[in-house]
Amino acid sequence: MDNAQLLKGVLEGCVLAVIDKGETYGYEIIGELEKSGFDEIGEGTLYPVLTRLDKSGLIACRRAKSPLGPVRKYYSITPQGRSFLAEFKKRYRRITESAAAILFEEEIL
Amino acid sequence: MDNAQLLKGVLEGCVLAVIDKGETYGYEIIGELEKSGFDEIGEGTLYPVLTRLDKSGLIACRRAKSPLGPVRKYYSITPQGRSFLAEFKKRYRRITESAAAILFEEEIL
DNA sequence: CAAGCTACTAAACAATGCAAAGTAGCTGAT
DNA sequence: ATCAGCTACTTTGCATTGTTTAGTAGCTTG
To answer: Residue A75's domain is classified under what CATH number?
Structure first.
């Protein structure tokens, strides 16, 4: 199946939400996403998202040694990221409610 | 704001769901979508979706005169479309539940 | 030293929504 | 009869974003 299209945009918001819970790094974010039910988010999928969020100023980055492997890049959310996330949630909710109205009608998602 | 990405894939499923409710045509589908809460779905957005669904064999097309304007293309769902829609709903639900778990945590969407 | 895990990078690609412009039939007002 | 405005569909070119694949490199363990 092709979930790629359904993930568009959603992933960006979810990654930001994960970082909002506390400073974290790429590999760990993948684990968080999969723990919440997302299927096999590859590294080639996640890292470009982080790069974009960083360039947009929604997250900040700092390098630090890992006790396990190579250097990690730790990300934390910025004030701009926080307000973007708040807006994102509103937009996301609105769209999912519109879609649910058509897809599931009487059911409440 | 840019809802374009959040709509990716969702729109296709919603259009199919609208047609599943009964034979209809492009202009009317746009009305249905907006009635359910979607914002300004342009013609340049919808018609390519219909073309794709048709080519994929998920909907069937027939031309008929309109009492108001130019000829309409009426679309109806095919058996393949029905099973695709059922699968789509499962996938969509799974992804929105995963996203909600991260975005809204304890809240129940 | 090799295997395997951790961790990030980069390039080429495919899918889809969107804006803009165009074609055309029909109706009603001027 | 003409023009505006609504209905209805088409086409082109574009931007964004997730995926695939491959690659680099540190660390631990056998």
So the answer is: 1.10.10.10
Domain hosting A14: range is 3-103
Count how many domains chain B has: 1
For strand C, give the nucleotides within 7 A of a protein CB. Answer: 5-11, 15-22, 24-27
Interface contact B95, partner A, CB < 8 A = yes
This model's pTM is above 0.70: yes
At A22-49, the pLDDT tens digits run 999 999 999 999 999 999 899 999 999 9
- Give dist(CA A54, CA A60) in Å, integer: 6
Residue B101 CB: number of other CB atoms within 10 A? 19
Q: Is A50 exposed, middle or buried (0-12, 13-18, 19+ CB in 10 A)?
A: buried
User: H or E segment at B25?
Assistant: strand B24-25
